[in-house]
Design brief:
The chain is an alpha/beta fold. It has helices at residues 22-38, 55-70, 82-90, and strands at residues 12-15, 19-20, 43-46, 52-53, 75-78.
């Protein structure tokens, strides 16, 4: 699984892999923890590549949101489409975490 990428620019962009399941979350845990502890601005989670999102992947996103909110920082989900979008809307995550169907501003699709 290719590692998700972040950029040093503000906002910070985290690109997630195609499968956000328990195995992916375990592999991403150190990066998610570091991001939650060290971010200094808004974090955008790019879901463009995500085709599968299960409870573990959803939990990781919500937990990251909670940790950033505790530090008075924001989280936005971008490039949300397909089944992941349907799941996030069905669970009303979009009422808590802003979601955009479009990609990250200033970057080519």
């Amino acid at each position: 699984m290719p590692a998700p990428t972040t950029t040093a620019a503000n906002p910070i962009v985290l690109r997630l892999p195609a499968r956000m399941d328990a195995a992916a979350v375990a592999a991403l845990r150190p990066e998610l923890d570091a991001l939650a502890a060290n971010a200094n601005g808004e974090v955008m989670v790019d879901l463009a590549a995500v085709a599968q999102l299960d409870a573990a992947g959803l939990g990781a996103i919500v937990f990251l949101h909670k940790r950033l909110t505790a530090r008075r920082l924001g989280l936005v989900l971008t490039s949300v489409a397909g089944e992941p979008a349907e799941l996030l809307r069905a669970l009303r995550v979009n009422r808590v975490i802003p979601m955009r169907e479009s990609g990250v501003p200033g970057q080519a699709a």
